[in-house]
Amino acid sequence: MLRKFVSRNRQLLETLARSWRMVGAQGFALVDADGHVVFGNGLSAGEELSAPVGPYGSLRVIGLPGAGQTNSFGPQLTSQAQLLAQILKREVELESMTVELMGAYDQLVAMYNISQAARSRLDLEGLLSSLLKEAVHLTGAEQGFIALRHEDGWKKLACEPASPDGEKDLAIITLAQMIRDRGRPLVCNSREECLNVLPTMPPEIERLALTPIKVGDEVVAVIGLVNKAEVFTAGNQKLVGALAEEAGAIIERTHLQEQMVVQERMQRELEIAASIQMGLLPSSLPHVEGLDIAAICHPANEVGGDFFDFVYNADGLLGMALGDVTNKGVPAALFMVVSRTLLRAAAPLHSSPRRVLEHANNDIYDDLSGVGMFVTIFFAYYNPRTRELTYANAGHAPVLFYRNATGTCEFWKADGPPVGVLPEIMSKDHTTHLEEGDVLVVMSDGFNEAANSQGERFGIQRLQEVIAANASRSAGKIRAALLSAVETFAESTPQADDQTVIVLKVTGAQGNRGTGA
User: Fold this and answer.
1) Cα–Cα distance between 399 and 383 in angstroms, integer?
2) Cα dihedral value 60, 61, 63, 67, nearest 10
3) Residues 246, 184 within the same domain
4) What angle separates helix 475-490 from helix 459-470, to the nearest 10 degrees?
5) What values do phi and psi take at 485, rounded to 5?
6) Which of 225, 239, 351, 419 has its CA 20 to 30 A from that of 457?
7) Is the dihedral of CA 134, 140, 142, 144 positive or negative?
8) How sure is the predictor about 306, in pLDDT bands with cuts at 50, 70 and 90?
9) What is the span of the domain harbouring residue 17?
10) In this structure, are residues 433 and 443 in contact, taking their beta carbons and an 8 Å threshold?
11) Is the pLDDT of residue 110 over 50?
12) Is the pTM of this model over 0.70?
């Protein structure tokens, strides 16, 4: 530093030297901290007067005339030394600021180049390769690499200049894992330090600087610089640290974009699946003399596992089904489609609800019992001539029957497990005669298990009360009253289960009013 100071302030030093010669001094010199003369006309033997120039060195004057006067020159020399020390300090600070400014400029240029690369290419590997080129260029390293962490380990994503060296690749992966475990940068500025870090370090690696690339607190990649003419400095580390932050942002942004693409595709597929599923539900309800029918299906999510259906058998009996798959999402929707298809195929062949369920159960148990899902199904035939309802209930609830003659609402229990649980159906056929004003309500458990913000369930009793209070109204209004009561109870709390309901009300001879979804 003193030699730079001398070259920039030679005129000042020469002026000081002349002033000392004018008072008779034989020698004047500026000496560094190691005792080497960096400016002066040489030092000879004689009485010496010295004053420190801060921590940088000292000013010395030799051979002043008159031994008794030597001390009188001390304050003057000290004052000059202090002046030089202040000038030196300012120059050191200015040089440090210049280095920082140049580093910041280099960093800005690197960021600009990376942003330009981001505009021209969107792939992660291309962006990281551009970033690595900037790091190698700005630090003067011979080579650099970026290793990216995958689910199955580490992969050398970029290398500048390219290197086919398999031994070095193995070392890169090992070093990347070390930095992930360490979580902070590592610098080796000698071959010995490199071997202390990794005894199997390839012989051509003399110096090494490694910096983790993080997304949040997680190390997702490592940027490494190999060899340079001089040591890797703190400035180099600061620059590479800034580039590592940018690399982390690039990786995070890329992952978010990939997730958005996947989510958008999944959302579109769910919308298509929901459209298909809703299209499988009856678009209109059957017109049956003496019956008022209403039905609706509200999936809790885009797709669900509930369904209802109406179909006639060979004897002209109206078949009705409501099913609830014991699962959610796309798997339940697929299982629901299969179950509905099998019921539709079986219904025209049988006059017994139990036989219909048995037909469907045979195929579901044989082909799908291994998937771990099953479906509760209430299936019934209604004979409009006799007003007889024959039903079989495979694990389904709730099924509620309002008997107009007594003004009571009964709970019809299932007498067998759901379809797909056992190789044989355990449910039996049950027959009941319907009278005018009777109401049959078949629901999925999205009604009775609907919860409010306190976690309280709506329950069967409240359903019975709503049905009894609205039994004199049409099937459509009974359905609306049930949906409204559950919604009010839930207090806008999101529900986890689908809500599907069929309402049958026995009327006079005018027939069904056709209240659909």
Assistant:
1) 19
2) -100
3) yes
4) 140
5) -65, -45
6) 419
7) negative
8) confident
9) 2-97
10) no
11) yes
12) no
